[in-house]
Write a structure and sequence with these properties.
The complex is a heterodimer of chains A (about 300) and B (about 450). Chain A is mainly α and about 300 residues long. Chain A contains 13 helices and 2 strands.
């Protein structure tokens, strides 16, 4: 009996201690939870709620179920599919042009060439410049009258290649893709460079002793080691492309004829120019879903090849 | 135990810091209104502190003493109306030393976004610039705008009631009209002379011949900013109006008539024919209005169709003012349209926020300020006066005087399409106009698309 009492009091003490421990953890987490819920979860929940409404932003909304989601893909005046297609094209170039180029630069700089620090700074510089400045800079480059691009084409005798780069429907999207790639090459390069530098020199040297060339070391030793970083870069590149906004707004203003429309510019137009806050919320929910889906798919794709 | 105490202390400090952050903002002492002068709020960051000033302002208003009013407008440094705002605000500061006006100016397109966000968040300043008709109508129907019927009684002798038509909803007045403007056909006469023309051609046939002659001389007839679709509407709406007539176009814009109108389709085709014939600078599709206007003033284009608010900038440029003339776009189909049918009307408006703590005082201030902006704007050549002109107006520039003559002989006016329509319809309409300028659709595609998407 006495033993039972002792056991019970020990259990009580233990559960009290557990409770206090849990309370401590909860108190520590509370500020972060409040911030997380207040800044991230609550706005998403409100967007989800508003996406089910017809709402002009000023007067009370009307519940319309999933009509906004249906209209998003069926209404000719909304152009969501066009915007999604454009975002995916930007994502394609980001993943298959920007990232390989970033990887190449990271691998080259990782070989400890002379001037490594200098080149690292130079390649990273566009990331530090304001996107508005970059947009204006490229607008000047593309200017049909005095832009350096058309002038250069004239100078090399290829005047027939001259274009109204941001105004021609055929070249407008390309004129957004190039600065986007240029701006973020340095960002991904830095991520990968950190990974390359983290690869043990023992592994490199062992491979070299086995007769591997620099490229073979990179191909069979370094790249497999930095695969988690490459995966992160791919996720950043794809989700960043889906959310792209600033350069498009500055360089082409989503034109001509919606040829460079992306979901974020469409979202802004819906909210602030067309007063369709319900539809704007629907686009924002779709963006969240797409970003999550792509992030999960990319993670899964990389996981399959990991052993 | 020691760990527990430390952890509890840390948690307490974190919680306190959160409370402290909230408390500091709420209890921050409101800055007392300073010298009663009008000043433009210099930076966005400083503006964040402004709401704290609202409470004392409300108290002071009730006691009839000093108060602070906030105003947003689009008279940026590069805007033609900038001087008229500055002069009017300076005069108001002299006339009403008890009122401090904090005003901020924003770029035209971004302002549309900003003002709508402010309406949604119920954070409108006391007085705000707006466009009349549907743009203001959305805010009025949401109950966000203060009714000016009472205060208008004090100004009805100076402001003709006809000028309030575009800001009247359900018989109540909600806006203070400033200047009124029409779309004008500006011409660089030096370039026209090179092609053998001393005047802007008055008939459509002569006008087209003039364009051909200009082209033959290597001069681009028109510049139009494709990056800002409203600039394309200045051309397209004039061509449609002079093809189908003002009444038919107004019925489509305002009265719900169908877009499925063959006359409109033909007019769009006429516009596209002008593009195909290379009357327009092909580079224009990728340029902003500021760039196109600069090109026109630099002598790159012979014609530039845009709002008559540009008269101020053109008249103020010593090198350019003697070269430029303004006229009405010629009639294309005289069986349906005639000279005197114009695109434009009073659209620029000041309104007062219904949630302003000093709404009645702000309404009175907005009326008087609107009158002065109109006065100085007219003297500067930024447009025609919506208010009855007063004082010596002989110094008004010749361009604006020509516009006055055109308006004096006007038969009817159709308000700018994107202002006349609701926000949603206007953006769909602009999207189709954009496609027309980019030759992505023709006249038939334009009317069919709009008929199905808008009605």
């Amino acid at each position: 009996m006495a033993e039972n009492n002792t056991n019970q009091s020990v259990k009580k003490e233990k559960s009290k201690a557990d409770f206090r421990k849990g309370l401590n953890i909860f108190l520590f987490l509370l500020p972060a939870i409040l911030l997380f819920v207040g800044i991230l979860i609550a706005p998403i929940a409100v967007s989800l709620y508003r996406s089910l409404q017809k709402w002009n932003g000023f007067t009370p909304g009307t519940f319309i179920g999933f009509k906004n989601y249906v209209d998003l893909f069926t209404s000719g005046s909304i152009k969501f599919t066009t915007s999604l297609k454009n975002a995916l094209i930007i994502a394609f170039f980001s993943v298959f042009v920007q990232l390989p180029f970033s990887l190449l630069l990271a691998l080259l700089l990782g070989r400890k060439y002379k001037g490594e620090r200098f080149f690292l700074t130079v390649y990273f510089m566009p990331v530090l410049i304001s996107t508005v400045v970059i947009g204006q800079l490229w607008l000047k480059i593309y200017n049909p009258d005095y832009g350096i691009l058309n002038r250069a084409l004239d100078a090399i005798g290829r005047g027939d290649w001259k274009h109204i780069w941001v105004g021609d429907p055929k070249t407008a999207l390309g004129s957004v893709v190039v600065p986007t790639i240029w701006q973020y090459v340095g960002y991904h390069m830095l991520l990968m460079y950190a990974g390359v530098k983290g690869v043990s020199s023992d592994l490199r040297e062992a491979a070299m002793l086995d007769g591997a060339t620099n490229w073979q070391v990179d191909r069979y030793v370094v790249i497999p080691c930095i695969k988690p970083i490459i995966r992160t870069s791919v996720i950043f590149a794809v989700t960043g492309s889906l959310k792209t906004y600033d350069l498009v707004r500055i360089i082409t203003n989503a034109g001509p004829t919606h040829k460079t429309e992306v979901p974020s510019t469409l979202l802004e137009d819906m909210l602030f120019l067309r007063n369709r806050y319900g539809m704007g919320s629907t686009i924002s929910v779709m963006l969240i879903i797409l970003c999550f889906a792509f992030a999960l798919a990319i993670s899964a794709a990389f996981k399959e090849k990991e052993y | 135990m020691k760990k527990r105490v430390i952890s509890m202390l840390l948690a307490g400090v974190m919680a306190l810091s959160l409370c402290a952050c909230g408390g500091a903002a709420a209890e921050a002492p409101a800055p007392a209104p300073e010298a009663p002068v009008a000043e433009e709020a210099p930076a966005e960051e400083e503006k964040a502190e402004e709401p704290a000033a609202e409470e004392p302002a409300a108290e002071e208003a009730s006691s009839g003493e000093a108060m602070t009013l906030n105003m947003w407008c689009i008279a940026t440094e590069s805007d033609s109306n900038r001087h008229s705002y500055e002069a009017a605000i300076e005069e108001m500061a002299t006339n009403h030393p008890e009122i401090t006006l904090n005003w901020e100016a924003f770029e035209n397109e971004s302002y549309k976004t900003k003002i709508k966000a402010a309406v949604s968040a119920d954070e409108l300043p006391d007085i705000f610039f707006t466009w009349s008709c549907a743009f203001l109508g959305d805010f009025v129907s949401a109950g966000k705008v203060y009714c000016l019927d009472d205060v208008y009684q004090n100004y009805k002798d100076e402001l003709p009631v006809v000028m309030l038509g575009n800001s009247t909803y359900d018989g109540k007045h909600y806006g203070v009209p400033l200047t009124m403007n029409i779309v004008g056909l500006f011409a660089n006469m030096d370039l026209l002379k090179e092609a053998g023309y001393d005047e802007i051609p008055g008939t459509y046939e002569d006008f087209i011949k003039c364009c051909d002659d200009l082209k033959a001389k290597g001069i681009i007839p028109f510049g139009c900013a494709g990056k800002e679709t409203w600039c394309v509407t200045e051309y397209l709406e004039s061509i449609i109006e002079k093809s189908v007539g003002a009444e038919e176009l107004n019925n489509i814009f305002v009265n719900g008539a169908t877009w499925n109108n063959q006359g409109v389709a033909d007019a769009v085709d006429t516009f596209q024919e002008m593009i195909t014939k290379e009357y327009f600078d092909p580079a224009g599709i990728g340029l902003t209005n500021d760039e196109v206007k600069a090109n026109f003033m630099a002598g790159k284009y012979a014609f530039y169709m845009n709002g008559t608010w540009n008269c101020a900038d053109f008249a103020a440029n010593d090198e350019f003012k003697d070269k430029v003339k303004v006229a009405e776009f010629p009639v294309i189909d005289s069986s349906k349209s005639k000279l005197g049918q114009l695109i434009g009307g009073p659209s620029d408006t000041l309104a007062v926020s219904a949630s302003s703590p000093n709404a009645a005082a702000a309404a009175d201030y907005a009326m008087e300020l609107g009158k002065l902006i109109c006065h100085y704007g007219y003297l500067d050549g930024c447009g025609l006066p919506a208010w009855t002109p007063y004082g010596d107006t002989s110094a008004v520039n010749p361009l604006t005087q020509t516009v006055s003559e055109i308006v004096a002989n006007a038969d009817s006016m159709v308000l700018f399409g994107d202002t006349a329509m609701t926000a949603d319809d206007a953006q769909v309409y602009l999207s189709y106009v954009d496609q027309v300028y980019g030759s992505a659709i023709d006249g038939a595609g334009f009317i069919e698309g709009l008929a199905s998407d808008l009605r």
